[in-house]
Amino acid sequence: MIDLVLTNATNANVDICDYVVSDDETLKINFTNNLRVERKQQKIVTDRRGYNSFDYRNRLMRYNWKEFSELDLQARTELLMMKMQCHYNEAINRKIINVEVIIIRVKFLLAVFDGLYKIIFFALRQYPDCKYVGIYHMDRPGILIRDPEMIEDILVKNFSNFHDNDLEIKIQHDPIFGNNPFVLKGDMWKKKRIQHLSSVTPAKVKAMYPEVDACGDRMVSYLNKQIEKTGIFCMEALELAARYTTDTCTAVGVNLNANSFTDGIPELREAGRDIFEVGVLRSLKLYFMFLIPTISSFITLRLLPKSLTQKYTNLILQTLKYRAENNIKKNDFFDHLQEFRGEKQTVEEMTAQLGGLYIDGFGTNASGINFMIYSVAAHPDVQNRLRDEIREYIDKNNGKLTPELILEMPYLDAVVSESLRKYPPFPNITRRCTKSYDMPKASANSSAFTIKVGTPVVIPSYTLHNDDRYFPNAEKFDPDRFLGTNKDSIIKYTYLPFGEGPRICIGMRFAIFQTKISIIKLVQNFKLSVNYDKTKLPIRIHPQGLILAATDKLWINFEKLD
Length: 562
Ligand code: HEM
Known about the structure:
The chain has 23 helices and 11 strands. It has helices at 53-62, 65-70, 73-93, 98-112, 116-126, 148-157, 175-178, 186-198, 202-207, 209-230, 237-254, 267-276, 280-291, 293-296, 306-326, 333-339, 347-378, 380-396, 403-408, 410-422, 461-465, 484-488, 508-525; strands at 27-29, 37-39, 132-137, 140-145, 233-236, 429-432, 437-439, 449-451, 456-459, 526-530, 555-560. The strands form 4 sheets. Strands 3-4-9-6 form a 4-stranded mixed β-sheet. Strands 5-11-10 form a 3-stranded antiparallel β-sheet. Strands 1-2 form a two-stranded antiparallel ribbon. A hairpin with a 2-residue loop joins strand 3 (132-137) and strand 4 (140-145). Helix 10 packs parallel to helix 23, helix 17 crosses helix 20 (410-422) and helix 17 crosses helix 23 (508-525). It is globular, with a radius of gyration of 25 Å. It binds protoporphyrin IX containing FE (HEM). The site of protoporphyrin IX containing FE has 27 residues, from helix 8, helix 17 and helix 23.
């Protein structure tokens, strides 16, 4: 979350945002010295157009929340940033003591919860020629990268300088998430990553096909049953996607049927809700974990509730016992985990790895499939072309769908890629500087800049994917971008749904495979259309989601094909 964005701040050597703060003005923010607010003369800060902070405060006070939320992106962001500046001014002018300043900042923080991605959009749009801009992450200055070559430098070429993700979770506080490669650092990360990778090799993913295919069939028979009752069946896309991913994760994880397509809400689906839940409390928790990791390492923060950790642990214990007693071997994730047991893998570690499958796979996949269902439903031309391709390929293969065939269909691949472009489930990739690094100049007029150890770095995938510069007419859902030579013209490191470099998503192959199977099953069997009466458009992205989510539900009509 951004605390304050500044431009050419007196002591800063990075070009940042809109409000010029010069020596003779009230507020002086020292970028290199972790937000030091100095009281100088009682002067009023003005922005480039001559508005001062009080003008902004008056403007802010004239908006009620509803009016405010209807302002366009730029106006909202400007107001919020100015509002914070007013708070600081007030705090300084009234010589408020530090605790009050902290309270003011927390209040502002809640207001800014309105969406990091919007502020990113704004900051980057203001500085089209800068390779990177500075942002404040609460008390820590950070760097927002927008230049594709620099992204490559950070994610790949100079990985050793940006080795870790920027979040802090202690294994003893949250044994499941704390053991996840996403969170781990240094050598522990390397070791766990290798273990995880060995369970999602191409051959192992292919071998999971019968289980995932069976989940797809269960989804189809559930929809068919509902259609029989009501003719056209309307369902929220995310609920359908979440049930499907709960089933697939459980099937490939422990070879069990999670029964997500029964009428009631089964336990694991219910547990999955915890992973997806968005709300102020959860956002604050994530905020602390990601953006103020120094604090979160002192307090007991866990991403997953204890009850969910217990559910996964029980699942592991029961499966261990059942398989040992009945001498059962399956080609699933669980048995791959068992292979590591020689290294004295504890039940906690196994639980962490299984939990990891749910956390990493369930939320992101369900988000991806949610937006893909919507996109296909909203574009009948794309849907028909996709259906024709699927039929043609299956017919040519004697009516059989196989894992090899799924990977051969070019338009299917383009539809999935385009959906992940418009709606990348992970909207931002973060790194923490682990070895100081000399950056190239941000722009011709900037001075050189060295990133210090501990500085957070944000790579805004969602913003890059939706930038007209890299994806002309970015608003349009157009799978042709990913076909033939069009695909070759995409600038490297502007398309990052799964990240890049040594920390690239481990589950990418499985995620794409599972997503493709879901859309094949749906388009093969049903006509999908958006229920425009129930769905509020245009889609608004939920400001508090760590994983991309729509603020309003996306309702889809499913009809039998003629
Ligand atoms: C559509 C679905 C998915 C998307 C969009 C996605 C995206 C991502 C992204 C952007 C990252 C960060 C990469 C980076 O920092 O450079 C990541 C990391 C990771 N993902 Fe996924 N993911 C998906 C599904 C999965 C699944 C199904 C699994 C597990 C089987 C998984 C396991 C992981 C793990 C373990 C990491 C941490 C890797 C590391 O730090 O070494 N993901 N994912």
